[in-house]
Each structure stands twice: as structure tokens, then as C-alpha cells.
Fold this sequence. Notes:
The protein is an alpha+beta fold. It has three domains: 3-68 and 396-433, no CATH class; 75-167 and 321-393, no CATH class; 177-312, Flagellar hook protein FlgE (Tick-borne Encephalitis virus Glycoprotein, domain 1), CATH 2.60.98.20. The protein has helices spanning 3-29, 138-145, 399-433; strands at 39-45, 61-67, 75-77, 84-87, 92-95, 107-110, 116-117, 123-124, 130-135, 161-162, 177-183, 195-202, 208-217, 223-230, 237-240, 246-248, 268-271, 283-288, 298-299, 306-312, 320-325, 330-335, 340-345, 348-351, 358-360, 364-366, 374-377, 386-389, 391-393. The strands form eight sheets. Strands 5, 6, 9, 10, 21, 22, 23, 25 and 26 form a nine-stranded antiparallel beta sheet that branches. Strands 11, 15, 17, 18, 19 and 20 form a six-stranded mixed beta sheet that branches. Strand 12 and strand 13 (208-217) form a beta hairpin. Helix 1 (3-29) runs antiparallel to helix 3 (399-433). The longest helix has 35 residues, at 399-433. The chain is rod-shaped and about 135 Å long. It starts with a helix and ends with a helix.
Amino acid sequence: MSIFGALYSAVSGLNANSQALDMIADNISNSNTPGYKETQPLFSTLVTQDPTETTYTPGGVQVSPFSAIDQQGLLQASTSPTSLAIQGGGFFVVNNNAAGASANGAFSFTRAGAFTIDANGNLRNSAGLYLQGQALTAAQAQAIQNGDFSQLTATSLTSLETVNVNGLSGTAQASANVTLAANLPASDTTASPARTVTVPVYDSLGNEHDLTLSFTRTATANQWQVAGSLANAGASTVTIAGGDDIVQFNPDGTLNAAGTTFNAANALSIAWDPGVTGATTPQTLNFNLGSDGQADGLGQFGGPFSVSRVNQDGLRYGNFTGINVDQNGIVTANFDNGEQRPIFIIPVATFQNPDGLAAQTGNTYLQTDNSGGYLLRQSGTGAAGQIAPSALEGSTVDIATEFSNLIITQRAYSANAKVITTSDEMLQELIDAKR
């Protein structure tokens, strides 16, 4: 074969190593980019068919980029509650438009989870892409609060929307359930003064009132009678349904649930004075006094009167203070009255071949025929990794490896350049032979 074959082969080597240098440069420049996946040059031969068995025809080399998209980067702790990472497989779904599918926004997939809340309340990452999630219905939110976290029903990207926290405000919640734990002294008699417990009660507008419960020993063994009253509540009245005012104890001082009537549903009701509050009236309360035969609520033991627990479920109006995301991908809004309300669930998109995704600007990827279709899964289920809140996935670039590759690439480039120089000198010798 002519000297030109060697020349062209060396030129292909220069081109291939130039591209390898481009990849190394990109890797080094993105060594601190969250979720970035290192790009590696894959070299392969170009073979030209030899015309005879005694001749050799050089072909050269070609290079193609490869990113191990499914390679896990190190997780790094973050102080931001909206920074998210995925421990394991899968991607966050993002959109370049806050309005998402309704505005023909473009969906893509990323592991870059440096999300922050923008001026419009949207969760957006450093590339300006908006995090997509499934808005929770009231029933789904209640199920989550009851401990059932498997509430992801979205199966398509168009059923998702941008996670937004704008305009959230806490709601006032009327007290409906009260839990009491106290000791009513066994030494008390009918002549003893009533034992009183003050319970903070919120009406439906979130106004707080003090409800006083009075426990008076009756002539019946191990039995107490309950009455209720309100202070500074105008003409508001407290009513305990007839026969529902009894608390009874076993001989060992534990609660006798069968003989107790104050644990009946809606045992106590409050009729609010409209001059004091415009809250819904009547307001009924249920009382949890403990377990039957157990010392975990009201008891009648020796020793002084003492109150160990008074809990109720009412809330005043609350202002939004921020959000947190848990490992199930559930976004919860927090309010300064103690209310916590689940509002979104973030899915994890998985692919049969994530290395077949097409890389895009902004550290995102697009689905391709080679990657296969997406599946939306709940965090930590199936092939989906678990969402790690307050964390970021680091770049998979290793600087030491990149500098080693830089030296190798430089030497290979120089060697190919030497082949071109040698070929040039040989061609010059051939031209000079004509003289």
C-alpha cells in the first residue's frame, strides 16, 4: 500500500485523540457538577480489506463517546431541604416550562437534584428545569398521614405537574379528639373538692378557649362524675349528654372501660356564644381516657392528684414555613401552627437501558429507542432507587484518572503526528528520487 495509507491512518488517530481530549476536558470541567456522568472515549479499529495476502492496507481508528449513565455518584449531604438525590437507579422528571404539558413543555430526565424554590413557588434546579410530581388528592394526603405511603398513581408524564408551593396556607382545625392521662387520688371521698383539668380547645375558626373538666368522687365505689365549663367565653355552654358523665375504675386503679360512659362518641358538646366567636356550633368532643385495664390514661391510685398528658387535635390558623421531602418522595408543607400537609409525591422514572439515553444541555437526558420506554415508580420500589432528601449526587469524574488519561492521549496524539512527519519525509524522498 502507498505511503498515503499510513498518512491517512495517522490523521484518523489525530482526530480520534482530539475527540478523546474533548471528552477529558468536558469531564474535568464538570467534576463538580451534581449528577454529571463521566464520558469515556471508546476506540475501535477501521479495517480496510487487503487486496492480497502479502499486502497490508491500513484503515485507522475511530472513537465514540460512552457515558455510564447508570453509574452511581457519591451522595453528599446538603443543608437545603429541597436538595434531592437518588440512591440507586432512576431519574427525576423535569420540564423546561413551569406549566408543563399544558404549555407543550418538553419533558426530560435528570439526576441533578439541586432544586430550590423560585419566586413563583416552583421547585427548579440549577439548569432552570422544573421538578415534576403528582399532586395529591385530599384522600391520598389523608392516607399518607395514616401511614399508607404508596399513593403514586401517575403512569404518564402528562399526568404530572410542576411541584409548586405558592399560595399555601395552614387551615384552622376545630378540636374533635382529646386524650387525657392523670391520677385521680384513691383517697378522695364525696366530700373532697373536685379535681380539675384544663384542656385547650380550638373552635372552627382557630380561636383557643380553656375548657375545664371537673372530676368529682361519687358515692358509688371507684366511680367519678365529670362536668365541664368554659372561662371567658360569654354565654357559651358545655353539655355532657345524660349518662355520659361517668368514669369508673377497677379495684386495682386501672380504667374500667365498660363502666365508663365519658368515653362515648361525642360525649361533650359546646354551644358557642356568637358574641364570642362565629365558629361552627355545636362542637362535639371525643375523649380517649386510656385502655381498659391499663395504666396508660386516667387512673385511680394512691398518691396525689397529677396530670401527665393532655393532648387535643385542634389547630390555630398557620402560616407556611417551608417544605420537606422524605425518602418516599412525599413533599410535605409545614406551617407554624404545627400542621404538616402532604401535597405532592415525586416519582422516579426508570429505563430498561439508561445508558441508551441521549444527553442534553443542563445535565438531562431524553428517551431514545435504545433506552426503551420509561416507567414511573414510587421511590424505593422495583428498579427505582430511593430518594435521599437533603443530599446531592456528586459527579462520577475522578480527577486523577482524567489527568492520567490526559497524558496518555497527549502521547498518542504526538505519536500520530510523528507518523505524519515520517510519511511526509518518505514522500519527499520519493519525490527527490525523480531528480
